């Protein structure tokens, strides 16, 4: 590996409580009359992108907002169910900004940046105020005040929610704020556009190349800064709870242009998803993990026991979470529940047709509390389960299995959310900044909106006010070259005319990733994965078959381009997982575990953010390290026994 | 893959194929074997498309994204019914176990004047975004909001607001309406916002502007057929339309 540049996260001095205040005072401001002279490109219109686009337009900037869907309101933030955390302490149960900060750093297994997490906890309270003012219909008590619940094993009730559709309602709030700016002429929405490249002028992010997904036209768009809010890369695994069009291409193009990719191996695998039903499966559906409050997880004690669950007597069942973790039982954190399910299935004790599922059984609770109790609490989830599987969860145990759900890794950003490329800012799941090696439930919505409503409006202004911009246009050489490269790449994909479809390649990459860079990783497996991904990548460029042409709506061409990127990103994820010879959060290295089989961190050697730089010529990516300093929270070993 | 060897149902599909917006379309027949009852309807179309690509034909284009019934991107007519015949279900959540071996299935795009066909089963629904841009919001800038608990809101009202806010903007209501009206969609947003005190200051202008935009986009008028309510995958009640009419009148009579 070549020379490493010390990464400067530009964290403000002073105690953690004062850092954000300091930064807000330090930042240079853009004269109100000058704001309209700046054009900001925002890519992605989920919680982070829509809130950023709306807020920046309110300040007076000209905003171009891009999304791949037909409407900005369809971004995958819309699918988040559970809720959004905020340190409001409305429940008077001991919550505070400090506690939310502490829980998030601990939950992230001490691999996140303290200063960012503290700021996140600070602005969390403003988010709820903002959303209520926009008309987000959060659940309320009979007295008319907001209701909160505890979520994901936290001991305080800090989660605000709108039925099981919190993500949808928050996104509609941000979308409506965005459409208000469209109405005012401050935002131009460009839907059905996919970003293909980032354009740098004098080393600064000055524009993007997009494909109009309806006509295939390659467009060039110029701005003074680019804000990327394009979500996570969970679809590198083919099957995930992401939307089928969610993809990594925008961040991957930026990585190839010089942005650093941080912690690519940190993925979150959610324990309560509906299992795969066959080769045709196109995506996985999550069921809220609140189900684990009342359901008991079990498998047969004997490997290969194919009897239906009702015929397996109590004495021949293994309630393995309750057995292994007597104090937390079925409520252990996501990573532990997922790994344990994999373990029993690897032992041949998995259930269902595929043997890749465990039971989530409500019988005891139904016996004790009655079926109405369950129906009232989880009725919609049981309906959803029945819609998808055709089985009645009240009568027979549900079958669940873990699925890729969220990625904590993403493009490296400094405290101001700016990447290693000046003028390229990255928000939401697309960046790496706040969740360390594991994200807590109800924190993704919080981070997306914090970045968009309350961080970028300050930090972007500072960049604009302190930078000099050479006039450029879409006719400049830099734009022309990038557009040509993007077009040529698509033409190349179309010209291969081999035998295998983009979906087949996607499935194959996903299988490698799931088997070797999934819930448990080891050195041999990761090395094997790297070889395998390289092989598939080579085959892809020789044997891919993409139908149609570039000048039409062509979803298989879109997919082919994204899959070609997964064939590169997957390798980087494996390289990162291989280099990190410790277990932490969602990254479990089999070589690094306690005698009881739990994840064992190695703080002496790995207490840093790994930030990978794309090599200029052929060769291995270059590793940069950002050391993590814990001045306020002392790292300890997590235990749930 | 050799279709004859696949286990599962065989289906006879009649699918609308249209190469582009200005090109005439037509129905094309396909026979698909090996359909598993555990597939979703869109996964069934995925399998068909894989076969078509292998045969060197163009796959059927259809919009879809989250595949869990919340993004509103998918939507097609199945045997004349928007999103198919299952109650409160988007087409991505409709599973093939509701069909029988040797069924004939007709698949068409949404058909409405305000939703021009782009290609095959994909239509342009941007008119709905423009209706929202004409007032489907509460005018608050980021930063100035009072404490979230400053205004108590009764649980009943907030639940009613939430019922209306559940709309996913899929356009099934428009496609099912004999008049091609977007009344249910527009009214759902008006109802969501007018049920909350925060939405009160702009209620008149909002209703007037949104209804006018709806007319400008070429949607038809509502004549109380109720088809919209019947097909809505989110069970939005037609009573929101009555509420919209009241709000519109209030706006005019100001």
Keywords:
heterodimer; A: about 650 residues; alpha+beta; Flavocytochrome C3, Chain A, domain 1; Methane Monooxygenase Hydroxylase, Chain G, domain 1; 5-stranded parallel sheet; 5-stranded antiparallel sheet; 19 strands; globular; B: about 250 residues; Ubiquitin-like (UB roll); Fumarate Reductase Iron-sulfur Protein, Chain B, domain 2; 2 domains; 5-stranded mixed sheet; two-stranded antiparallel sheet; 8 helices; about 15% strand; elongated
Regarding CATH, which class of the domain at 478-614 in chain A?
Answer: Mainly Alpha
**Mean model confidence by pLDDT of chain B:** 96
Terminus-to-terminus distance of chain B: 67 Å
In the CATH scheme, what's the topology name of the largest domain in chain B? Fumarate Reductase Iron-sulfur Protein, Chain B, domain 2
Could you explain how this protein is built, in words?
The complex is a heterodimer of chains A (641) and B (254). Helix content of chain A is 36%, strand content 14%. Chain A has 641 residues and is of the alpha+beta class. Among the domains of chain A are: 270-403, Flavocytochrome C3, Chain A, domain 1 (Alpha-Beta Complex); 478-614, Methane Monooxygenase Hydroxylase, Chain G, domain 1. In chain A, the strands form 5 sheets. Chain A has a 5-stranded parallel beta sheet with strand order 5-2-1-9-17. Chain A has a 5-stranded antiparallel beta sheet with strand order 11-15-14-12-13. A 4-stranded antiparallel beta sheet of chain A has the order 16-10-18-19. In chain A, helix 2 packs parallel to helix 5 (166-184) and helix 3 (97-107) packs across helix 4. The longest helix of chain A has 25 residues, at 555-579. By secondary structure, chain B is of the alpha+beta class. Chain B has 2 domains: 3-117, Beta-grasp domain (Ubiquitin-like (UB roll), Roll); 125-252, Orthogonal Bundle (Fumarate Reductase Iron-sulfur Protein, Chain B, domain 2), CATH 1.10.1060. Helix content of chain B is 33%, strand content 13%. Chain B contains 8 helices and 7 strands; from the N terminus they run ββαβββββααααααα. Chain B has helices at 41-54, 126-133, 155-165, 172-176, 183-194, 203-216, 227-231, 239-252, and strands at 9-17, 26-35, 77-78, 81-82, 104-108, 117-119, 122-123. In chain B, strands 2-1-5-3-4 form a 5-stranded mixed beta sheet. In chain B, strands 6-7 form a two-stranded antiparallel ribbon. Chain B is elongated. Chains A and B meet through helix 2, helix 4, helix 5, helix 10 and helix 11 of A and helix 1, helix 2 and helix 3 of B.
């Amino acid at each position: 590996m070549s020379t490493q540049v010390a990464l400067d996260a530009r964290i403000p001095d002073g105690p953690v409580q004062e850092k954000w205040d300091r930064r807000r005072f330090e930042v240079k401001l853009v004269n109100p009359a000058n704001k309209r002279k700046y054009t900001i490109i925002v890519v992605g219109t989920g919680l982070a992108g829509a809130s950023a686009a709306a807020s920046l337009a309110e300040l007076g900037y000209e905003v171009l907002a891009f999304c791949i869907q037909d409407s900005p309101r369809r971004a995958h933030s819309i699918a988040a169910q559970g809720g959004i955390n905020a340190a409001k302490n409305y429940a008077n149960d001991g919550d505070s900004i400090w506690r939310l900060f502490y829980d998030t750093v601990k939950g992230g297994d001490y691999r996140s940046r303290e200063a960012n997490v503290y700021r996140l906890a600070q602005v969390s309270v403003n988010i709820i105020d903002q959303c209520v003012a926009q008309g987000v219909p959060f659940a309320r008590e009979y007295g008319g005040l907001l209701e909160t619940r505890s979520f994901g094993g936290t001991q305080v009730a800090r989660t605000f929610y709108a039925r099981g559709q919190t993500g949808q309602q928050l996104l509609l709030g941000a979308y409506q704020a965005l459409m208000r700016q469209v109405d005012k002429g401050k935002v131009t929405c460009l839907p059905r556009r996919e970003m293909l490249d980032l354009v740098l002028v004098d080393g600064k992010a000055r524009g993007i190349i997009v494909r109009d997904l309806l006509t295939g036209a390659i467009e060039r768009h110029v701005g003074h800064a680019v804000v990327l809010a394009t979500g996570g890369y969970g679809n590198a695994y083919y099957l995930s709870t992401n939307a089928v069009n969610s993809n990594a291409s925008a961040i991957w193009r930026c990585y190839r242009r010089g942005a650093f990719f941080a912690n690519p191996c940190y993925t979150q695998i959610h324990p309560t998803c509906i299992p795969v039903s066959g080769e045709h499966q196109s995506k996985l559906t999550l069921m809220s993990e609140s189900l684990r409050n009342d359901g008991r997880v079990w498998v047969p004690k004997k490997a290969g026991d194919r009897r239906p669950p009702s015929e397996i007597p109590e004495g021949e069942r293994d309630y393995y979470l309750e057995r292994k973790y007597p104090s937390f039982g079925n409520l252990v954190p996501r990573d532990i529940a997922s790994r344990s399910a994999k373990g029993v299935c690897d032992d041949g004790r998995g259930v269902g047709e595929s043997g890749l599922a465990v039971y989530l059984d409500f019988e005891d609770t139904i016996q004790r509390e009655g079926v109405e109790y369950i129906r009232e609490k989880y009725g919609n989830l049981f309906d959803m389960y029945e819609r998808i599987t055709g089985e009645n969860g009240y009568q027979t145990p549900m079958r669940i299995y873990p699925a890729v759900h969220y990625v904590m890794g993403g493009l490296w950003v400094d405290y101001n959310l700016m990447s290693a490329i000046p003028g390229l800012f990255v928000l939401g799941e697309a960046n790496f900044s706040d969740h360390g090696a594991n994200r807590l439930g109800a924190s993704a919505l919080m981070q997306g909106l914090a970045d968009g409503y309350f961080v970028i409006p300050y930090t972007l202004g500072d960049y604009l006010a302190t930078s000099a911009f050479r006039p450029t246009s879409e006719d400049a050489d830099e734009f022309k070259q990038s557009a040509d490269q993007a077009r040529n790449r698509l033409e190349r994909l179309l010209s291969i005319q081999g035998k295998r479809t983009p979906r087949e390649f996607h499935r194959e990459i996903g299988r490698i990733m799931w088997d070797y860079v999934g819930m448990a990783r080891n050195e041999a497996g990761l090395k094997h994965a790297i070889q395998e991904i390289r092989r598939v990548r080579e085959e892809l460029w020789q044997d891919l078959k993409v139908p149609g042409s570039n000048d039409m709506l062509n979803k298989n061409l879109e997919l082919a381009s994204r899959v070609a990127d997964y064939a590169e990103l997957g390798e980087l994820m494996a390289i990162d997982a291989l280099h990190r010879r410790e277990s932490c959060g969602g990254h479990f290295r089999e070589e690094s575990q306690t005698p009881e089989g739990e994840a064992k961190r190695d703080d002496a050697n790995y207490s840093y953010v790994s930030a990978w730089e794309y090599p200029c010529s052929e060769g291995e990516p270059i590793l940069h390290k950002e050391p993590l300093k814990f001045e306020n929270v002392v790292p300890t070993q997590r235990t749930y026994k | 893959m050799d279709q004859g060897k696949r286990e599962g149902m065989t289906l006879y599909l009649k699918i609308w194929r249209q190469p582009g917006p200005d090109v005439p379309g037509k129905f094309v027949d396909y026979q698909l074997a090996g359909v598993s009852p555990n597939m979703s309807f869109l996964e069934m179309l995925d399998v068909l498309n894989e076969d078509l690509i292998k045969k060197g034909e163009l796959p059927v284009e259809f919009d879809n994204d989250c595949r869990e019934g919340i993004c509103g991107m998918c939507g097609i007519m199945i045997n004349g019914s928007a999103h198919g015949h299952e109650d409160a279900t988007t087409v991505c959540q409709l599973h093939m176990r509701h069909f029988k071996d040797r069924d004939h299935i007709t698949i068409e795009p949404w058909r409405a004047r305000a939703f021009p066909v782009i290609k095959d089963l994909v239509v342009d629904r941007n008119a709905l975004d423009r209706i929202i841009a004409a007032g489907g919001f509460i005018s608050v800038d980021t930063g100035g909001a009072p404490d979230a608990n400053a205004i108590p809101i009764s649980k009943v009202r907030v639940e009613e607001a939430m019922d209306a806010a559940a709309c996913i903007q899929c356009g099934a209501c428009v496609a099912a309406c004999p008049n091609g009206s977007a009344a249910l969609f527009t009214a759902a947003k008006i109802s969501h916002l007018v049920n909350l005190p925060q939405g009160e200051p702009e209620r008149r202008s909002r209703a007037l502007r949104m209804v006018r935009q709806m007319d400008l986009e070429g949607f038809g008028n509502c004549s109380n057929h109720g088809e919209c309510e019947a097909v809505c995958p989110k069970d939005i009640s037609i009573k929101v339309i009555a509420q919209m009419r009241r709000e519109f009148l209030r706006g005019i009579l100001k």
